[in-house]
From TrEMBL:
Residues 3-119 form the Response regulatory domain. InterPro entries: Bact_response_regulator, CheY-like_superfamily, Sig_transdc_resp-reg_receiver. The modification 4-aspartylphosphate is found at D52. Pfam families: Response_reg. This is Two-component system response regulator. SMART domains: REC. GO terms for biological process: phosphorelay signal transduction system. It comes from the Bacteria. Keywords: Phosphoprotein. PANTHER family: CHEY SUBFAMILY (PTHR44591:SF23), STRESS RESPONSE REGULATOR PROTEIN 1 (PTHR44591). It comes from Paracoccus salipaludis. Gene3D superfamilies: 3.40.50.2300.
Length: 123
């Protein structure tokens, strides 16, 4: 199906998501901090990035801005994954350059719909 970059520092979440996405025949590339996510996005050129916003080394908002400022990665859709589900958090993620927003805990079927929509936007 598609190459997805999952940037997530919580082992339970990246294990759960990567296994379930691989079962759906997606190729999943993992990064466990913001700088590694930025580097992996540039090196791997995934079709969609699933980006936790609360990351060590570099937060997800900074990662999203840098990816969107770089012509080599600007067109890659980014879905923000965050436990921040307060009023204004969705807008903050979109303003940082994310294309979509998914609050935690993860609703896997909804996330799959968002991934499919992001892939359709790139196709």
């Amino acid at each position: 199906m598609a190459k997805l970059l999952l940037v997530e520092d919580t082992p339970e979440i990246w294990d759960f998501l990567s296994r379930r996405l691989k079962r759906r025949e997606h190729e999943v590339v993992l990064a466990h901090d913001g700088q590694a996510g930025l580097d992996m996005a540039r090196a791997e050129q995934p079709q969609v990035i699933l980006l936790d916003m609360n990351l060590p080394v570099m937060d997800g908002w900074t990662v999203a801005r840098r990816l969107k400022d770089d012509p080599a990665t600007a067109a890659i859709p980014i879905i923000a994954l965050t436990a921040h589900a307060l009023a204004g958090d969705r807008e903050k993620a979109l303003a940082a350059g994310c294309d979509d927003y998914h609050p935690k805990p993860i609703d896997f079927s909804k996330l799959l719909t968002q991934i499919d929509a992001a892939l359709g936007a790139v196709a």
